Amino acid sequence: MIGPLDLLTAPVLGPIQMVQWLAMKLIEVAEGEMYDPDRLKGELLELQVRYDMGEVPDQEYMELEEALLKRMNAIRETGE
Question: In terms of residue numbers, what domain contains 32?
Answer without folding.
Answer: 20-78
